[in-house]
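Exam revision sheet. Question 4 asks you to relate a sequence to its structure. Input first:
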Amino acid sequence: MTLLARIIGAAALTASLLATPALAENKKVTLSQAFQSMLYLPLYVAIDEGFFTQQGLDLTKETAGAPTVALSAVISGSAQFSIHGPEWTAIAASKGAPVDVIANVVNGAAVWIATAPDFKFNDIKDVKGQKVVTGLMPTTSTSLFIKLLKENGMDAKTEVDMIPVAIGSEPGPFVARQADIAVMYEPGLDQAVAKGMKVVLGFPKLYGAYAFSAVTARNDVDPDTAQRVVNGMEMAMRFMTGNEAKTVEIAKKEFPTLDPVVVEAAVKRMLADGVYPPSVDITADALKVSMDTQIALGNLATQPDYKAFVVRKFIDSAVAMK
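Answer key, structure tokens:
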């Protein structure tokens, strides 16, 4: 089944339940996130610090469980906004879905490679012939790893032994030394570091600005509501840039089952590596780098038209706020 068919199919499952009313004066809106993820911390900061409320919104956060399900909620109308990788939006838009992206959420390739403490790593070619714990495809972490191998003349299918596991469970087999190398997101990365593993390569610094997660909306979204959502996200990102300690405190509240030490290390790493952006801006270069990964993997045929795909009017107004 094609990606678009899965998206439309998920939307059809909920269509019969929909009866989207006109927005009330207090602007009740629903945002569907793919997962409860540390990558989406700007959203949680905006909620917890009351930035959406200050913008006149009564925002309900729903967790879809998968990017395609979150996106399908927007396509069908059961949610006005969704948060996930912009590649899902680009693929759907390329097939005719009426969606685009309106704000940045994560602006760095939030993936790292870690190794056992005694593994000698000088560059990516040192993984040749090794076992590597990776997330089950499709996922950006494994996609970036495969792309990096290809760029360095290696074939992921024949020159490394990937051990695919459910996303988020990478620390288990890695710490158990089923492999000396792992490709990881946070907070799994710092969970492994807390057990003595070492970070040897960071994709955020390797790629620079990279549109990793974004807010998606239908292209017929109510513009006033969309502007308020983007403004709230902008306020959160400015807050995070100047309030590291409070940002860490919010993250600990949002992820109460995680070791607080791991949460703090993960948030500080992502702030330092530029994973959390200073604003909602999505540059043409950041989008191109991100979509190049999907094109290289065959998930997307061509680059989306930046001017049509990224709604600058919402971004520019938010960035200009005093």
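Marking note for examiners. The domain at 112-207 is CATH 3.40.190.10 (D-Maltodextrin-Binding Protein; domain 2).
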